[in-house]
Give the backbone structure.
Amino acid sequence: MGARIIGFLSIALVPIGLVAYFQTTQLDAETRARTQLSLTDRTEAAVAAERALLTSAFGAAKALGTISQVTGGRVDQCSQALVEYSGTEPDVTFAALMDTTGNFVCASVGGIPSRTDIPEVLEALGEPRQNILPFEQPTISDEPIVAIFEPVFRDGFHIGHVVISIPLSALRDLQPADQTTGASFIDVALINRSGDMVTSGLDRATLEPLLPGALGLSNLPGQENYSFLSESADGVERIYVVAAIVPDLLYAVSIWDRNSPELGALEASTFAKALPLVMWAASVVVAYLAVNRLVIRHIRTLRYQMRSFARDRRLPAQSSAGDMALELRDMENDFLLMSDSILRDEAQLENALREKTILLKEVHHRVKNNLQLISSIMNMQIRQSETDETKRVLRRLQERVRGLAAIHRQLYRTADLGRVDVRELLEELTQHVAVMSEQDDRKLEIVRDLDPVRVYPDQAMPLALLTAEAVANAEKYIQRDASGRARIAVRLKQSADKEVTFEVSNTSDPEQLPVVDRMGGLGQRLISAFATQLGGELNQGLEADTYRVTVTFRISDFKPEVVDY
């Protein structure tokens, strides 16, 4: 029952859990987006000055490229424009117009080589797009610079680039905790589209362990703005934010410690998604405990009481707890009333059954006494008879009466009045034959091989009469065999499928008149009749020096009379 309750509650809470999960997921996504946007804004704010300077430099480079087109390629006018621009911009150390092969067309300063052979510069000049490259040891300056490249077109053809160099010292140094933005990042670095480090607030040796170890800087540019969690080169998990300062050209990468308070929303997503599951589990546990306390434990107690009553008819000594629900208390009271009624009815039935048993035993006892009285009267009549034929007839009739008396004696003695132990019955009947043979000095040998077989009185009666007739016939017509013995054998065997074989045999002399010719009278007819009442198959005949009477039948079930109902 508890498992079913948990199952039904789970099904009932599934819609609520799904709604809570989806709402939590959406809220978490919005929170993460806002957090990422906030981190991006703080990253962009940290490099706002650098962005303004570089954006201004790119704008100036585009204007200078337009001037070079207007001058028609005249070197003096081009140089004059570059010198005027350099003079107005203190953060610009050098400006020049270079063709696609690396030759200087004009420049803001003199005394420079006519061309350059730096591979990075030649590669940037060959591509008709903007670029920005850092140089640690430039040939045109005594300090590290950042060079920006602005393509110049004439009549739709790419003719070169305007190159402007800005010293790294002109870029504002970045600090881990900027007081103006309130950001608590570790560092912010600028990289170009190729992943080259343009500038950073830390020196190279300090910055290298803080960069993501699995991802190179060349893999960071690409998206506009995003953040990710990665293990740095020094084995510490950190969060990195990539923001596009100049789209497809310059990117700012900020490094945040994982325990920064600004990143709480990013770290709480797992717990937030697990909240619906926690709520579901808590609801199921609370509901199960409530149902278990209010219902299940009382039902379990009531079940124990029922089992105890069914096993040993024992009623509970006291009632259940006082917090039992009214419906369950009514059920318990109904059970107690039913149990008490059953006990009273069983007591009455037991008394009626005991009285009936005593009455039946008394009936069997009186019938047995009456049959014994009849047998005694017949015995007196036998002693007064003058002819042997009369004595023989009366003795045969007396044997039949004794067989009936033996059955009623067994029913009187047994505890189960509905069953008769056939083995005890046959032993008693054959024992009388043995006693009579000893009195007549005939020395008959009685052999018994009897299995314990129990049958209903409806079969015990014809079987006892059949035994009396068969044994009486065997005693009457017995003959001694070649060895001089006179033996009567009674055999009763039962198989596993309720099949019973009853057999009475006696010794005979084959040279004399067959016994079967002299047994065609009343006894033979009675044997056939009793075998039919048993529902068995009768076989008899002489085999060598033994005459056998065999009846095979099945033990039948009790079939009550209609009047019993």
